[in-house]
Amino acid sequence: MAEPIQFPDIELYRGWGEPMRTECTIHGLELLEGAIPEGLEGTLYKVGADRQYPSGRDDDIFIDGEGMIHMFRFEDGQVDYVNRWVRTTRYEMQREAKRKLFGRYRNRYTNDPEVDNSVSMGTANTTAMFHAGHLYALKEDDLPYEIDPDTLETIRRTDMNGQIGSACFTAHPKVDPVTDELLGFSYQARGDGTKDIVFYVFDAGGRKINEVEFEMPYAGMVHDFAVTDEWAVFPFFPMMTDMEKVKAGGAYFEYHPDKPTHVALVPRYGKAEDIRWFEGPNATAGHMMNAVRVGNKVMLDVCYYEGNCFEFFPTPSGDVAPMVPPFLTRLTFDLGRNAKEYEVERLLNVPVEMPRTDDRYQGRPYRHGYCIARSPDGSSGTGHVNMETGEISIWRPGEGDMVQECQFVPRSASSPEGDGWLLIPVNRVSRNRSDLAILDAQNVAAGPVALLKLPFKVRATFHGTWVPKHARETGRYEYGLAGAA
Ligand code: V55
Ligand code: FE
Known about the structure:
It is a single chain. The protein is mainly beta. The chain has a single domain, classed as Neuraminidase (6 Propeller), CATH 2.120.10. 4% of the residues lie in helices and 39% in strands. It has three helices and 33 strands. The strands form eight sheets. Strands 2, 28, 29, 30, 31 and 32 form a six-stranded antiparallel β-sheet that branches. Strands 1-5-4-3-33 form a five-stranded antiparallel β-sheet. A four-stranded antiparallel β-sheet has the order 6-7-8-9, with no helix packed on it. A hairpin with a 6-residue loop joins strand 8 and strand 9 (154-157). The chain starts with 24 loop residues before the first strand and ends in an 11-residue tail after the last helix. Bound molecules: 4-hydroxy-3-methoxybenzaldehyde and fe (iii) ion. Residues 63, 125-126, 140, 223, 286, 462 line the site of 4-hydroxy-3-methoxybenzaldehyde.
């Protein structure tokens, strides 16, 4: 007899966090308000964590949980919605066993004895990536899972035709929609607790054209990075893995409040010997908005925590280090000087997370940023940041409601920066269901130009990507920059 399915009564699973565990298909979402903009043709893919089976543990955390991929397909004036579990090795093994076999977040020493130590813990729960005609679901501790872009069926776990020789690939790759290059990396690349990091550049056809292998100062978490025309910027915040603690069943990461931050600037098309190292104050961060090079200076714009960014990762002594608010902050690295320090400058005094841009301007001088702006009452709204003036304008969906990460879609392949729409899954918390809001990206505060209804909740998505109709057909974005030749 299989065990009864009973989730523990913990905060994580209450209210909006109640596991959804449901695969749905809707042909044509109801339009509640406004009109779907003409010319908006393509697919928004989003990936998040749901809960396949109860773990029986009380140390479960929101960034764990089996991957669920969602799509909103805009076609012929309507929007279809589909979501499917990603059939990871872990998902399939648990489905077969009819119970949870994998234990604490990234801690294989807490797995059920019937799971071989070599099986990946990967959940494919963090983002969707589209490159060279293929769609993937990603988690930073595992290889990519290729997904059918029309049905969301899982095709395979892949090392990209043997080109990734590591155990994993980042969940924050950068696909440049102008050059169609893919930039990514593997961290703890030789397995749990290793210091190896490998940076990759792939061309528009998916062929690896550069690889730079180097060592981090310690086996840390490298959740995101940023790229400019010449550099890949890797901040190493002191969120570290201690394998002795992990082997004893502890948390996979610990926040060290007394350690500095190290930053590596890795040449985009160069070699490890040309890496430039910097060192700065204690801090943490998950997400980068962008990086830009101007002359000899590289600027990294990041949602910066002057302390811990994850309450569930303790200090080495086992204390809870309370989470501090994230502020959009610019770190400036002067490559013209032979100094290790960098400048730290707060750009905005409102706590913001899940930063995005018009992705054609990743690594290029930019004027528009988008983010989730938090309110003191626990609700949230979608923010537009004018990067020249530092002003933020915010759309708040309603009392108690929350927004998920937005996706910018340009009006046309070569429209000016910021001319387009924002697509946003909205948590209608009091109604226990979701909407998809479409905002005019140049007038965020005016509220949705269209609002589509989901008769259930899209529980949690972290990140995603937009694939325009022409890219699904040709495998290339081939976007342009307004004013560029
Ligand atoms: C983060 C998210 C993750 C993860 C590690 O936001 C770090 C940071 C969604 O999963 O596994
Ligand atoms: Fe992330």
